[in-house]
Design brief:
Number of helices: 11
Structural class: alpha+beta
Number of strands: 20
Strand content: 15-25%
Largest sheet: 5 strands, antiparallel
Distance between the termini: 50 Å
Bound molecules: iron/sulfur cluster
CATH class of the largest domain: Alpha Beta
Length: 460
């Protein structure tokens, strides 16, 4: 590789990093810096939650966001407190395995992975992958946005967020199922979804993933401006990757039956309310804080609940909600009542049980409206309607709060004014089909209420 290429690649890597917050590199925003705390599979202990709450109070403005990758963000960090915040988070055991390993801690699993006796437990594989990503120097050059989904076929799962690479068991009730894998997309659930590229056994899965990363990194050295696997596939075609893989790993990955394989759809809103864990004696209890946001007081109270009901453990989810594991069946109703008493919602007709929003103009210089305040206003107007679809409030078309279209999206165009989109299978925009342009929150509430009350599908 020439020195020019090396320098170009290094500066491109640094540029792409600076756009994304991390633990050591805080991104500037209107309300101060953002520190992103990457949690392994969304896991958080009650003690760690209390330490984050204290740190957000002392070093930030108190706003704590749950992200769509089940991580946390501490907002409003002042420049003079950045180092103290980092030291506190490292002391709490929330740092990466290596100094340069923070950005690549992007391995997603279901928040109920490992707790379903009928499903393969993918956490050991995901843990080994996370270690490999953090400890191998070449992998540390991957974009902070580069993400890998290790799906175990669970009934509670997000399979609509596109990932650079996904694996999903073809027969999840088999104790050693073959995994289908695919690039730049999601496990197929609908007839017209793109099929997987091939299959591997559980024992071959880590080799396959690292081989894919190696192929991408080699290609990326010749194309330093690119950052995601979709860029490579657009350049080389998928067949190039399959050929490279079979040469490197020494076993075939193509599978004829894959073209018709579809992953079972997860349960709708399975992350909310009470769900049995695999062994039958315990439950998960899940609920959503308003707009996926916490503050130090609420986080400390959640830590108390985790101590009381779930062995000091809780889990954050990609729906930007909270899940308490290991709750005894007898305690589940009172645990849910405790969560609701703290202002969390678990009943999907309630608009705040599913509504998500980016920071909006309270925290982001690109925002065209106060999405957080407008979202709460919209939720109040819709409260009591028998059916309320999931709503995404976005301060601009960048859609930071959601990598995929939601049933209803409000995209700000001016303070208090939004374009409304309904999710659609064929666009035309990334949010779906335009329902109405330039509407106020009151008009949006009326339109959404009418559309929901019609009983017709919200999918256009
Ligand atoms: S979607 Fe737009 S307004 Fe919202 S946080 Fe992202 S860049 Fe800012």
């Amino acid at each position: 590789m020439s020195q020019l290429t090396t320098n170009t690649q290094q500066s491109t890597v640094e540029e792409r990093r600076s756009a994304c917050p991390g633990l050591f590199r805080m991104a500037k925003a209107r309300d101060g810096a953002i520190c992103r705390v990457k949690l392994t599979f969304g896991d958080l202990s009650a003690d760690q939650a209390r330490q984050i709450a204290d740190a957000a109070h002392r070093f930030g403005n108190g706003a704590i966001e749950i992200t769509n990758r089940a991580n946390l963000q501490v907002r409003g960090v002042r420049p003079e407190t950045e180092n103290a915040l980092i030291a506190t988070l490292l002391k709490a055991g929330l740092g990466p395995l290596t100094d340069r390993g923070d950005d690549v801690r992007n391995v997603m699993v279901s928040p109920v992975a490992g707790a379903d006796s009928d499903r393969v437990d993918v956490r050991p594989l995901a843990t080994r992958l996370l270690e490999a990503l953090q400890t191998n120097f070449p992998y540390q050059s991957l974009s902070p946005k580069f993400s890998i989904l290790i799906d175990g076929g669970e009934s509670v799962a997000t399979v609509d967020h596109p990932h650079d690479l996904w694996l999903s068991p073809i027969d999840p009730q088999n104790s050693a199922p073959r995994f289908a894998f695919g690039i730049a997309g999601v496990p197929p659930t609908r007839a017209d979804d793109q099929s997987g590229l091939g299959t591997v056994t559980p024992g071959e899965a880590l080799n396959l993933i690292t081989a894919i990363l190696d192929v991408f990194i080699e290609w990326n050295q010749r194309h330093p401006e690119a950052s995601r696997l979709r860029h490579m596939i657009a350049d080389t075609g998928a067949e190039y990757l399959v050929e490279q893989l079979e040469q490197r790993i020494g076993f075939p990955v193509r599978s004829d039956g894959l073209v018709n394989w579809r992953r079972a759809m997860p349960r709708s809103n399975g992350h909310l309310g009470i769900s049995p864990e695999g062994n039958g004696s315990n439950c998960f209890v899940g609920a959503m804080p308003p707009l996926g946001r916490l503050d130090p007081v609420l986080l400390r109270l959640l830590a108390e609940l985790a101590d009381k009901h779930s062995n000091g453990k809780f889990r954050l989810t990609p729906w930007q909600s909270v899940l308490l594991p290991e709750v005894s069946i007898d305690n589940a109703p009172s645990t849910l009542a405790d969560l609701e008493a703290l202002g969390l919602s678990a009943n999907p007709p309630h608009p705040l049980a599913t509504m998500i929003s980016c920071a909006g103009s309270a925290g982001c210089g690109s925002a065209l409206a106060a999405t957080q305040a407008d979202g709460l206003k919209l939720a109040a107007l819709l409260h009591g309607k028998p059916i309320v679809p999931q709503i995404h409030m976005s301060g601009c078309s960048k859609s930071c709060a959601s990598p995929s279209a939601k049933p209803v999206t409000l995209v700000a165009i001016a303070p208090g004014h939004y374009d409304i989109f309904l999710q659609a299978t064929n666009g035309p925009s990334r949010f779906g089909k335009l329902l109405a342009a330039n509407v106020t929150i009151e008009e949006a509430a009326e339109l959404i209420g009418l559309k929901s009350g019609s009983g017709g599908p919200l999918y256009a």
